[in-house]
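Human: You know discrete backbone vocabularies at least as well as I do. Show me how you would write down a chain together with its backbone fold. No explanation is needed for now; the record alone will do.

Assistant:
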Amino acid sequence: MAAEHSVGFEPADRLAEDRESVRRRFWRKLKRVAAHLPFAEDLLAAYYCAFDRQTPRHVQASLLGAIAYFVLPFDFVADVMPMLGFADDAAMLATAIRMVAGHITNEHREAARAVLRRGVDEADVEAA
């Protein structure tokens, strides 16, 4: 998965290859930071698309790479920095979503909204 154009993203590329690790880490991190994420709905919709069996493999790979970058414990801009902390995560996710936007369905978006309405604490139990 890592290629010349992904220099610096190798840890995310390696993590994205382990779907179950991404799944577990995603819910743990989302639970901690959801209240601070203005892009939480897009992130969740991308997650549901990435794990949807109907989604083409190349789309899953793109989204899993962006989600893996989100769950990494380190990145280019530390997540704890006010205002800037998730800017790199948002940029990575926005780029991936733009590339595969046609594959993120209304069902993925509705599932994301439902999680946000119920609360992440309840949702991660069923998804894990």
In short: The CA atoms of residues 50 and 60 lie 4 Å apart. The two ends are 25 Å apart (CA to CA).
